[in-house]
Amino acid sequence: MKTGLELFYRDPVWVGLDGYDDGLTDANSIRYGGKWVVYCKPWEVEDLVERAKPELGKTLLSLKHSIVPVSLTDRSPPDMHAIVMYCNHWTRRDARKALERRGFSELEWISDIYALKRELKNGAYFNFFHAVMEPALLIELGDIAGVDMKPYVEDTQRSLGVFKDKLEEGLRELCKREGVDFDEELKRAKERDEAEIESLPNAV
């Protein structure tokens, strides 16, 4: 179980604070997880985060805040930052009461299933990245959210196959004009890559 309140990630949109593990599997964390969200002006972020921190490990599992305006649902107000405070189905009501006692109002509940469905339907980069790098995971996430991602994965993989074939065809033609053996160069490149991997610390 996590027990710190340390900064555990920062990206161009979010800053997250480490919290506590809910003990659920990844799939059940999505099925039963969610977050209370409050929108605010940039200068209100720090104060709201400090108010929410004491609930980490109690009614909240973790929290994050945006460093740019964000839209998380179709009801999100325009040009506002957000404080996102994670809990689950069982602690949802207690978390809201605790946050209201700490001065939070106009809280919006977003279930992780809703957020995942929205990402799968609208997240072009998210979908493409996972279709290329982790296709099985994207299909599994779709199954959890009730969104069939298999056709998208198959189309993406098929398009990548066509691109790869066209790229290889062009490289072979270039090597032919330069008097270079494409297959021999490819073999050498693979050998160099394998040698570099073996030279890395803790390489398996």
Can you offer a commentary on this structure?
With 204 residues, the chain is an alpha+beta fold. It folds into 2 domains: 7-112, RNA Cap, Translation Initiation Factor Eif4e (2-Layer Sandwich); 123-204, no CATH class. The protein is built from 8 helices and 6 strands, in the order ββαβαββαβααααα. The chain has helices at residues 26-32, 45-52, 92-101, 112-122, 124-133, 135-145, 150-178, 182-199, and strands at residues 7-10, 14-17, 33-40, 62-66, 81-88, 108-111. A 6-stranded antiparallel sheet has the order 1-2-4-5-3-6. A hairpin with a 3-residue loop joins strand 1 (7-10) and strand 2. The longest helix has 29 residues, at 150-178. It is elongated, with a radius of gyration of 23 Å. The model is unreliable at 1-6 (pLDDT under 50).
User: Approximately what portion of the residues adopt beta-strand conformation?
Assistant: 15-25%
Helix proportion of residues, in percent? Answer: 40-55%
Low-confidence stretches: 1-6
Return the domain count. 2
N- to C-terminal distance: 29 Å
Number of strands: 6
The name CATH uses for the topology of the largest domain is RNA Cap, Translation Initiation Factor Eif4e
Q: In this structure, how is the largest beta sheet organized? A: 6 strands, antiparallel
Average per-residue pLDDT, rounded, comes to: 86
- H/E element sequence: EEHEHEEHEHHHHH
Q: Determine Rg (CA atoms, Å).
A: 23 Å
